[in-house]
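FW: tagging you since you asked about this chain on Friday. Here's the raw sequence from the shared folder, copied in full. Didn't touch anything.
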Amino acid sequence: MPLIPEEPQIHESAQGPRATPASGRTAPTPRPVPGPRPAAPPRPGRPGPLRPTPPVQRTSRDVAVAKPGPSVPAAPAAVTAAANPQIQLIPASAEGALDAAEEAVDLLLDSGRAPGDVLVITTGEQHPWAAHELSFGEASYWAQHDAGDDVFYTDASSAGRAASRPVVVVAVNGGPDPAAASALPLALTRAGALLIVCGDPQQINSVLGASV
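HL: got it, structure written out here
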């Protein structure tokens, strides 16, 4: 079903460094998240203050929560999972998709989401952090994924190896068309509660709309 862009509201996140600001833009005030979360270690990424977020649009679906049957006890809140994640669309060009994804991660972290809850997938050029860490070898790179204590960045070709996380952010930042065609449905299966897709709405709707 087609996703009609609306104004984005990213509801969750935790503290961490912010991406380099784009001049002349003002960041919206993140929505409060009920209850405090423990402090998390700084996440990898580009240094600098929070990149101001431009007015953008998104669409979302309600999170479907599995309800236990009469004879099954209710699951603890800590392990209750969504049957289908909420989906948010942030319109962006291929050149601006990675920046939009960074802004989304910053807002997630600022609103209380733990860094280890977030997986970022790129369809084109690798995120600079991923490229840097891979220079030390895949074993070290994937060990950081397995530790699960920080934001993890990977590309579409390796995303199948990544484990599920509560939040998945996809930057449709170019690459061959099959990369986006495979990355978006895969990201949908990896996102436990929220899937954020940054890219061209028409391309995203044509791929993701057929998957949801």
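FW: The beta strands are 64-65, 82-84, 86-91, 118-122, 152-155, 165-171, 191-199.
HL: agreed, and The two ends are 7 Å apart (CA to CA).
FW: great, closing this out.
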